[in-house]
Amino acid sequence: MALALITTGLIQVGAASFAAEDRAESAAELEAVTAAITDIENWLETAQANYSREEQELRDAEMRLSTINGEITALRHAQDDTRLAMARLEEERTTLETERALQASLLAQVLRAAYVAGEQSLLKLLLNQDDLNQSERMLHYYRRFSESRVAALETFRTTLDTLESVNSNLELQSLALAEQQRALQVELAAREHALSTRQQSLTALQASIQERGSELENLQVSQQQLQALIERIDQAIQRIPVNVDYTPFAERRGTLPRPVAGAVANAFGTRYGDGNLQRQGIDFASAPGTPVQAIHPGRVVFADWLRGAGLLIILDHGDGYMSLYGNNEALARAPGDWVNAGEVVATSGTGAGEAAAGLYFEIRHHGTPENPANWLATPSP
Fold it and tell me: How crowded is residue 317: how many other Cβ atoms within 10 Å of its Cβ?
């Protein structure tokens, strides 16, 4: 008995020790993530201070547009949920209406039988029986008949109450759907205004670049700034512990899912900027608003606007591997968020300076760009 108590005590102490270690590890990881995000945000704040007025206006317009698009997506999801709830309530109401009609018919039969039986009292029925056993049977049947009437009435009342509740819920859901629709119309109008503002800002930026005759310089600066951001992130995330609960990124070569639906418009390494620059990622020709999915579990370490990349989200996958998703119309996750493979992190759009809609995608290892085609699974024909 004493040994059992000692063993139990050791188990409890061990469990408490493991729990304390887990809490300590979680706190350390949170502290490291917070420190890394703060470091990256400080770098971005310094970088933004050097943006031109046109770039700052474009950033503000795209950030506003991202917020509106996120609100529109949330409202549409809410509408879908409301419609689904209403469909279920309609189905339940149909079932209850059928049950009510059936129960009303059965109840009418019971009441009709009770009315007919009511012409003779229970006492008269019992006195007319010469056989004692027959009297007991009659008493039993009468009691069961009375109980069935009460049960039928209770069932009918319950059905009516449930039906009233369903009708009330349907009315509330209908009102909620109407309010969601009104809110959606407001957001759609706001998006049209934000799109117009964005286009004006983009036109002003392009005019400024042409006026200075420095388009190539602008592209070079954009590429350099992205490289500087990646290097800063790579330094910052080295303090973040690697999650070991999933297959390491390095082991997924050639099997990773594509981040978005759409054909490859520009391959890795192709020339642009009059042939002076090489693409460090690939462009997907996806329609605006197409969901962009994480290719592998990871933590969001950047989710903001960056010159040349537009609305950009970067995931840290551990061991120095990162995936970048640029030229989005809306960002769905924030720095510090943990995402699993397949989760939506953004919706693709048209990035600043890009002629066509689509997603710009990169894979980096310790800051060095790698050909995504070597990592992504070949799409099925």
Answer: 27
